[in-house]
Amino acid sequence: MGSYIPNTGSEQREMLREAGYADFRELYADVPESMLIGALDIPSGLSEFEVRSRMEALAAKNVRFTRIFRGAGAYDHFIPAIVGSVTSKEEFVTAYTPYQAEISQGILQNIFEYQTMICELTGLDVANASVYDGASAMAEAAAMCADRKRGVCLISACVDPQSRSTVASYCFGSGMELVEVPEKDGRTDMDALAALLSDKTACVCLKQPNRYGIIEDVDRAAQLAHAAGAKLVESVYAMSLPLLRTPAECGADICVGEGQPFGMPLSFGGPYLGFMACRAELMRRLPGRIVGETHDAAGERAFVLTLQAREQHIRREKAGSNICSNEALCALTAAVYLSAMGPEGLKNAACQCVSKAHYLADRLCAAGLKLQYGAEFFNEFVTVSDVPADRLLARLAEKGILGGLPLGEHEILWCCTEKNSRADIDEVADTVKEAVK
Q1: Could you confirm whether domain 67-78+343-436 is CATH 3.90.1150.10?
Q2: What is the pTM (predicted TM-score) of this model?
Q3: Distance CA 211, CA 161 (A)
Q4: Domain locations in the chain as residue ranges
Q5: Average pLDDT by stretches of 10, the chain with 437 residues
């Protein structure tokens, strides 16, 4: 893409100096040295075919797992073929932000249908589009709750580390105080939450199921938060929505989550999709876009860009968010996936996730591991053993299996989806049993 960058080398160096950097490498200071490639050993003068062959040989050195038992925020779900067939159409792939919204009826309808499905899944009144990912969605939700009198965000230690880190960054930038609610036996400590709540609390942020896969008592958290005049922000695992009580039923004011399980492949971590829904009284504080349905001059069904509370469209000091990029293609992907699966298909996939995860847990316990936090989990759970986690995972990797995520020296967070077969689960358990012996 170098030839498409509209500036010269000297201009790039001038921009680097102005930003306080000596070279491009300093821009990637947070990237480990082991992940960087200094140069590719490709002689000059090779043909396109020869270069391609060399690059394919290099790529073949990567280990690509097809049997995956790891989740922790990115999940290996089955994606029906129609999802890629629809979303790869040129009119969708090339479409960008509808700045002249009303002439972009196709894009607007896409967003409207997506919003409607998110509302149906969460039970809440209104949903938006264009949030980057689940972690950003939680941070945006916390910002929605703050005002001049309430500037404290309470976040559970059982929220995944990526979301907690993102919320912390947002709070640092806005001056909002962030306080962590401790965990107890793998769940949010509700007694500690009750003690931390005050008339300064703007919101309480929970995850359901939490980072350990355990089911939280969201109802009690909502009661405690509302009694103190605060809002409850519930982050949900998308695939759990067909089986668990809706966020609205549990008392959540705002529901957020990562939309990747709805038809998006793992893709090395992105692009993903953050979804948000809230009660009607909070609608004007939602970031991104809200598309509404109306009728045109001829009385035909039409769609309009109803609300855009972002800094590109209103005075910057009044903007509730600086989200700018258009996530409509990812939203379309989610909408096509949900349409293709339908309510029964989605529920069936969720049931398989639960049943297979519990079967895996039973087999691993029989193989010598122990459940760390009990059996009230959805499709993720934590095991502990005397055998180092790295040793167990290395034995699985030798057989082409990506095991769970190591949380400590002896703890592993496992995950099952509908793609994990009984035979693969049995092989994982048998391999672990051998390693334990």
Answers
A1: yes
A2: 0.89
A3: 8
A4: 67-78+343-436, 81-337
A5: 70 93 90 84 91 92 92 96 94 72 82 96 94 95 94 98 96 94 97 98 98 98 98 98 97 98 93 95 89 91 80 62 77 96 97 98 97 95 96 96 96 98 97 93
